[in-house]
Specification:
Blueprint lengths: L23 H9 L3 E6 L14 E2 L30 E3 L8 E5 L11 E6 L7 E4 L5 E3 L4 E13 L3 E9 L5 E10 L6 E8 L4 E11 L2 E12 L12 H9 L4 E4 L29 E2 L15 E2 L5 H11 L2 E6 L34 H16 L5 H8 L10 E4 L5 H18 L4 E5 L7 H12 L4 E8 L1 H6 L13 E9 L13 H16 L4 E6 L3 E3 L10 E3 L4 E3 L1 H10 L5 E3 L1 E2 L11 E8 L4 E8 L5 E8 L7 E8 L18 E6 L4 E6 L3 E8 L3
Parallel strand pairs: 1-30, 2-14, 14-17, 17-18, 18-19, 19-20, 20-21, 21-22, 23-24
Antiparallel strand pairs: 1-27, 3-6, 4-5, 5-13, 6-12, 7-12, 8-11, 8-13, 9-10, 9-12, 15-16, 24-25, 26-28, 28-29, 29-34, 30-33, 31-32, 31-34
Helix pairs in contact: 4-5, 4-6, 9-10
Catalytic activity: Hydrolysis of terminal non-reducing alpha-L-arabinofuranoside residues in alpha-L-arabinosides
EC number: 3.2.1.55
InterPro entries: Alpha-L-AF_C, ASD1_cat, Galactose-bd-like_sf, GH, Glyco_hydro_b, Glycosyl_Hydrolase_51
Length: 690
């Protein structure tokens, strides 16, 4: 995802959407109109639909990881952020403490080398700190939370640590939701755990830690983790958010981004090797989105990497998606510093904008990629395969795809991509590489990149587009004239913007979602060229977002899918196996008269699946001619997403305001009549074989 984008000049095409749940007046209009015949050439099947056709793009933006999918409740648990006490606050301004400091004297480890040291001259129930969590801590009544901490007792008579989970009230008062007490302290670092059962529900609770007694106490790696995680894993993920992903039946999961792959500088780039191993030893990093937008200035936004590459691979496996990691190609974000890793040495040829004194070369980034393939696929006898096995997954993750760079452009990218891809293919010829065409779907950089990547016989080219809804309807034929023998297309990031690209006023309106549904008919009709597609971004916290619109929204307790989510889900769960050519009434182009269509055969289920978008305020009767279809069933199923209000949105209060509805319809032959509702997206599943 980019912070600034430019776009094609739209071509002149219109748009459409589909179904029946319409008021009497619209029904009358539909009955008076002659149905147009849509021919689906069941007997002339086209390209197979890739299993990866519809997938997910994950980026840690909008508190998607910490504070979202990764359910650790304590912010800055190890005091390793740049601002060491981010998320922490002394009770009553730490008045009951004689001193407090962030120390690195004899830390737990070399990588976790800062901790909080508290000293109180006299015992006090206020001698301690609170942690605010991620815009509060979501706590559910009767749910259990595992508290853990590393403690070391210093001089004095501190006998324990009091742990309180509370809902803040006025002043320092608060409703207690659960308590625990840690005892048995020693003068050496030791890990302590306790389970707290919440006595109430609160969306914005906090954690309070106070010393029992006077003296000095060292505190580090403070964690409060819900027991209710996906598959009940100890370092698991938030189950409602994972379930929303799994329900989509995605073909792939692209991670970890996005611009955070690049970083604002090379020093701040995402380094996958820093995100595996012991969770307590993973060093946090400032999030690239923390201060990018004035409208959502978020200086407390850090990546803890509790959700790291091992967990991403595990998540991909859990939801049945192919993992698609994106790696830095030796370039920092070109919208920020645009630092470059030299292709040879910092003083050698093609050093470009390498940072002064930079000791990184492109070889470092290439080696990271080679090591990642070994981590994912290597035997347990290999160095990186052994690390995977030590984390609890001796079987390989069967990685098939790697993205080389995110959204980069210009000759600086191409001259780094080429040796990067060459080295990967030399050692792992079966790995498919996703390359970048930049952040814009047209323009000089896009054209030159597409041409050169074609010459290099790239496997996939990643194209991105964020634009107004009409752009998506007007560009439904974008891939109709792409070369059939060139690189395959990954529509890696796209989303209709209701106001303007990057605007804080963008909403996940039905107008945006139905326009994306129309555009996706063009992706499906060109399944021989387009093999992967994903909406972006995926997640957003309602109290901590930086970019909108987003596919799934959540707070600390609840979540919901947007109309855009249901469009994606309807495509992904009805992807089929083989594309079928479609001819609209009167040989119209897809999108003429606000009607869009695509079709596939689902050979496994024995269904013909037709997707129809009626972008019109009127109901639309259609007649489907399923040319060459055999063994027709008697009943079909319609899945309909429709609203007369193009500005309709879902919310935490009305999560299903706009959601698909199912109904059955009669099938008597290979000619099927159906009436599409105004402003609707309809999926018709018709039993029949080709």
């Amino acid at each position: 995802m980019a912070s600034k984008l430019c776009f094609f000049n739209p071509q002149s095409i219109v748009s459409g959407a589909a179904l029946l749940s319409v008021v009497a007046g619209n029904v009358a209009l539909a009955q008076n109109a002659a149905p147009g015949t849509i021919t689906v050439q069941v007997n002339k099947p086209g390209a197979p639909i890739a299993k990866t056709m519809y997938g997910l793009f994950f980026e840690d933006i909008n508190f998607a990881a910490d504070g979202g999918l990764y359910p650790e409740l304590v912010k800055n648990k190890s005091f390793e952020t740049d601002e060491k006490l981010v998320g922490w606050k002394g009770i009553n301004g730490a008045a009951a403490l004689s001193t407090y400091t962030i120390s690195s004297q004899q830390p737990i480890s070399a990588t976790n080398n800062h901790f909080l040291r508290l000293t109180a001259t006299t015992a006090s129930p206020d001698a301690g700190f609170t942690n605010e969590g991620f815009r509060g801590m979501g706590v559910k009544q009767d749910a259990e939370y595992t508290f853990s901490v590393y403690l070391r007792r210093g001089p004095g008579s501190v006998s324990g640590l009091n742990v309180t989970l509370e809902e803040p009230g006025r002043g320092n008062a608060g409703r207690t939701l659960g308590q625990a007490k840690i005892t048995g302290l020693t003068n050496e670092w030791k890990k302590y755990t306790a389970v707290i059962k919440a006595s109430g529900t609160a969306p914005r609770a906090r954690l309070k830690l106070t010393m029992d007694g006077a003296g000095t106490l060292d505190i580090d790696v403070v964690s409060l983790f819900p027991k209710d995680t996906w598959q009940n894993r100890e370092n698991g993920l938030r189950p409602d958010l994972v379930q929303l992903l799994k329900d989509m039946k995605p073909g792939f999961l692209r991670f970890p981004g996005g611009c955070i792959v690049e970083g604002r500088t090379l020093e701040e780039r995402y380094q996958w090797k820093e995100t595996i191993g012991d969770v307590a030893s993973r060093k946090p990093l400032i999030n690239r989105w923390n201060t990018e937008f004035k409208h959502k200035f978020t200086p407390d936004y850090y990546q803890s990497f509790g959700l790291g590459f091992f967990e991403y691979f595990q998540l991909s496996e859990d939801i049945g998606a192919e993992p698609l990691p994106i790696l830095n190609v030796g370039m920092a974000c070109q919208f920020n510093s645009a630092e470059l890793a030299p292709i040879t040495t910092a003083s050698g040829p093609n050093a470009g904008n390498a940072a002064p004194g930079a000791d990184l070369s492109l070889d470092t980034f290439i080696q990271d990629a080679l090591d990642l393939v070994e981590f994912a696929n290597g035997p347990t006898s290999s160095p990186w395969g052994a690390k995977r096995a030590a984390m609890g997954h001796p079987a390989p993750f069967n990685l098939k795809y790697i993205g080389v760079g995110n959204e980069q452009w210009g000759p600086q990218y191409l001259e780094r991509y080429e040796p990067f891809a060459k080295a990967l293919k030399a050692k792992y010829p079966d790995i498919l590489i996703v390359s970048s065409a930049g952040p814009s779907p047209d323009g000089d950089n896009f054209v030159k990149a597409s041409k050169r990547l074609g010459e290099l016989k790239a496997d996939f080219v990643d194209e991105h587009y964020y634009a107004k809804p009409d752009w998506f309807r007007n560009n439904v034929g974008r891939y109709d004239n792409y070369a059939r023998t060139g690189p395959k297309i990954f529509a890696g990031e796209y989303a209709a913007q209701s106001v303007n690209t990057g605007s804080s006023e963008n909403k996940n309106t039905w107008d945006c979602a139905i326009s994306e549904a129309a555009f996706m008919t063009g992706l499906e009709r060109n399944a021989d060229v387009v093999r992967m597609a994903s909406y972006a971004p995926l997640f957003a916290h309602v109290d901590a977002w930086q970019w909108t619109p987003d596919l799934i929204w959540f707070d600390n307790l609840k979540s919901y899918g947007t109309p855009n989510y249901y469009v994606q889900k309807m495509y992904a769960t009805n992807a089929g196996t083989t594309m079928l050519p479609v001819q609209l009434p009167n040989n119209a182009k897809n999108g003429d008269a606000n009607l869009f269509a695509s079709a596939v055969a689902d050979d496994k289920a024995g269904d013909i699946i037709v997707k129809l978008v009626n972008y019109s305020n009127d109901a639309r009767p259609v007649k489907l001619n399923l040319a060459g279809a055999k063994k027709m069933g008697k009943t079909g199923k319609a899945i309909v997403l429709a609203s007369n209000d193009l500005q309709a949105v879902n919310s935490l209060q009305e999560p299903m305001k706009l959601a698909p509805k199912e109904e059955q319809f009669k099938v008597s032959s290979a000619t099927v009549s159906y009436t599409l509702a105004p402003n609707s997206f309809t999926v018709l599943r018709i039993p029949g074989k080709r």
